[in-house]
Design brief:
Low-confidence stretches: none
Strand content: 15-25%
Helix content: 25-40%
Number of domains: 3
Number of helices: 6
Order of helices and strands: EEEEEEEHEEHHHHHEEE
Structural class: alpha+beta
Number of strands: 12
Distance between the termini: 51 Å
Radius of gyration: 29 Å
Strand order of the largest sheet: 1-2-6-5
Length: about 325
């Protein structure tokens, strides 16, 4: 089900001390090579998250079949297949997570694998940057090395900045995981930024190398094909944005006061006013921010014309 993990349909049916698995899993990395696979399944699709469980399955068991390697744009040395499960009997001791806990395990796994994808992106971007640096120092045009041109220098500077920023974000997420801190948010930040930055870096590296970069005589075209996948697996860039938006809007703790509690005033607003007027209560219009001084709010705001009920005492 891709990003919609809670809607998976691989069925797990209890049968005595065993579970019977039926379903097909696509995009299984090393599916045609592995001896053991982890399988997430559901005891009841209608229960969504609450029905998901997880198992360790041996590929040699009856009913387990690996499909042909999937032809891909890039990442061609990564064996990727489908796994078909037909009445596969799994003993209870092979259960990694009982029903209701499988989804949590999947999310905990993502929190640790997403920084790893970020690390892949850092390495890919760094390789492309270094190839572009080497080329720029040796390629001559208009009587000079192209590395002398400001346009090329700016590209290399931005590439370096993105590689370094990505590396620091990946380190932060990995450090949190190693130290028992929930790395979920940092993992999403690292995965999203590093993979998108890597796409930009590799693309610019190919641009610096121009036509040569587009040929298979040089490695950058392969890096460009390989790097495109990073924004998709282990949670797409769009899913990372959903995670981060949910965090910002529901869990993030702001250190700034609410806007309606601010009372921004200028000395010029009170030039010539009496001391009693200056010490009077302040009322802030929650619509436009105008500050009124007095025992009561004005009948209407002189700036936005909202009624006195729009004012809050500060």
């Amino acid at each position: 089900m891709g990003s919609d993990v809670s809607s998976l349909r691989c069925a797990a049916e209890r049968d005595g001390d065993d579970y019977i698995l039926n379903g097909t899993k696509y995009w299984v990395t090393n599916g045609g090579l592995a001896d053991y696979i982890s399988v997430f399944a559901t005891t009841d699709p209608k229960q969504a998250h609450a029905g998901i469980c997880a198992f360790i399955v041996e590929e040699s068991w009856d009913g387990v079949t690996a499909g042909r390697p999937i032809p891909k744009l890039g990442q061609r040395t990564s064996n990727t297949t489908a796994i078909n499960l037909k009445n596969v009997r799994v003993p209870i001791e092979n259960m990694m997570a009982p029903p209701g806990e499988g989804f949590v395990l999947a999310m905990q796994t993502f929190a640790r694998t997403r920084p790893a994808i970020g690390a892949f992106a850092v390495g890919t971007a760094r390789s492309a940057m270094e190839f572009a640096m080497d080329y720029a120092k040796k390629r001559k045009a208009f009587g000079s090395n192209i590395s002398d041109f400001q346009a090329i220098q700016f590209k290399l500077a931005e590439m370096y900045q993105k590689v370094e920023t990505s590396r620091l974000l990946v380190w932060k997420a990995a450090w949190e995981a190693d130290n028992g801190i929930d790395p979920n948010i940092s993992a999403s930040v690292a995965k999203m930024y590093a993979t998108e930055a890597a796409n930009e870096v590799v693309d610019q590296a190919l641009q610096i190398m121009a036509g040569y970069g587009y040929t298979r005589f040089f490695p950058v075209e392969k890096l460009l094909r390989d790097v495109r996948l990073y924004r998709i697996y282990e949670g797409t860039s769009e899913v990372q944005r959903l995670i981060l938006a949910g965090h910002v809007l529901s869990m993030y703790e702001s250190i700034m006061p609410p806007l309606e509690d601010l009372a921004i005033e200028y000395a010029s607003d009170w030039e010539g006013s009496s001391k009693s007027e200056q010490n009077a209560a302040r009322w802030r219009c929650r619509i436009c921010g105008h500050v009124h001084r007095g025992e009561e709010p004005p009948e209407e705001c002189p700036y936005c014309f909202f009624p006195g009920s729009a004012f809050k005492r500060t």
